[in-house]
Amino acid sequence: MTDVIFERLALIGIGLIGSSISLAARRGGLAGEIVCSSRRPETLQAARDLNLADHYFADPAEAVRGADCVILCTPVGAVEVITKAIAPHLADGVILSDVGSVKKAVIEQISPHLPASAHLVPGHPVAGTEQSGPSAGFTTLFDDKWCILTPQQDVDRVAVEKMIAFWRGCGSRVDVMDAAHHDRVLAVTSHLPQLVAYNIVGTVTDLESHLETEVVKYSAGGLRDFTRLAASDPTMWRDVCLTNKDAVLEMLGRFSEDLSSMQRAIRWGDGDALHALFTRTREMRQKIVDAGQEIDVPDFGRNNPDGSP
Ligand code: NAP
Predict the structure, then answer these.
(1) C-alpha span between 123 and 116 (Å, rounded)
(2) Longest dimension (CA), the chain
(3) Considering just the CA atoms, what is the radius of gyration of the chain in Å?
(4) 297: pLDDT confidence band, cut at 50, 70 and 90?
């Protein structure tokens, strides 16, 4: 149990990430009270049914009143409109944060609208699932996962320390880095794999009409793992592509070049080149396992996350 860090925590958006923050903050005793807002009545009702907060508001401007910490938990594409709506109602000295998968664009969208007394400490919990909505959240989502904070240089140090303590209290390991650096790193580790998965499953979907039964029947032969990623929220990933355009295009360019090299190796029967590549890629997986980011069991620990047989 950590000490209360915020007297009143306002979560704007209460889907997978917002609800998981609420559950983790309650587990850690991190907030005196938690309020939430969501634009659709059915989402707000679902949050109420799940008892995810102490108070519920349709209007985000109402929700932020008196809050000493506000976390935007909506898709990246919505943060500017929401910030404009809540800005006049923010308490003096409030910490404003978010959970967006892209950080530079979020700062550009939020900063111009914030009152001078607000402290902007953007965040990105590098944890999630392909599920959406309040019922998808769970208390342990952030346990031992990284949360990256990207405050600008001149942001109040106390505000940054509070957000570090908050995310640690939610179970995360915390790193602080520059927003542009975050966006390049995540373009490699998250955005590129996601877009490759969308592309593979898109290609398969086009072929499905004449191979239909076999595609689903034999999907365990590789396709299944890509469909998990490709089932992720379309709005979230549309916004990631549009707001991290430069880094994403750079990584897709590199990927296309490497794909062409592979095509050439296959066409020319260059088994040595293929074998060398497939050996290097195995080493990458071992590094990820060694770093504690994956479990070395055949199903990736999906059925038994603790690695038990
Ligand atoms: P989610 O489950 O779909 O929930 C989204 C929440 O935002 C809902 O409360 C929704 O409200 C609200 N919302 C959606 N569009 C909105 C709009 N245009 N204006 C105002 N509110 C809007 O999404 P999530 O998975 O929690 O993801 C939220 C953000 O977290 C993502 O965009 C992403 O950048 C970041 N993130 C996601 C993951 C992940 O794996 N999912 C991981 C790390 C970070 P209504 O339902 O009432 O419309």
Answers:
(1) 20
(2) 67
(3) 21
(4) low
CA distance linking residue 206 with residue 110, whole number of Å: 39
Distance CA 235, CA 115 (A): 29
CA distance 302 to 300: 5
| Helix (H), strand (E) at residue 31 | strand 31-37
Strand ranges in 113-264 using DSSP code E only, listed in sequence order: 119-120, 123-125, 146-149, 173-176
Q: Are 65 and 37 in contact (CB under 8 A)?
A: no
d(CA 124, CA 174): 10
CA 128 to ligand 1: nearest atom = 40
Distance 17 CA to ligand 1 centre (A): 7
Task: Name the residue with tokens 């877009």.
Answer: 195
pLDDT tens-digit map of 234-262: 999 999 999 999 999 999 999 999 999 99
Q: How many CA atoms lie within 13 A of 12 on its CB side?
A: 30
In tens, the pLDDT along 47-73 reads 999 999 999 999 999 999 999 999 999
Pocket residues: Cβ below 6 A from ligand 1: 13-18, 38-40, 43, 73-76, 78, 82, 99-101, 124-125, 128-129, 132-133, 233, 236
Distance between CA atoms of residues 3 and 257, nearest Å = 51
- Centre of ligand 1 to C-alpha 307, Å, is 30
pLDDT of the residue at 69: 98
- The one-letter amino acid code at 27 reads R
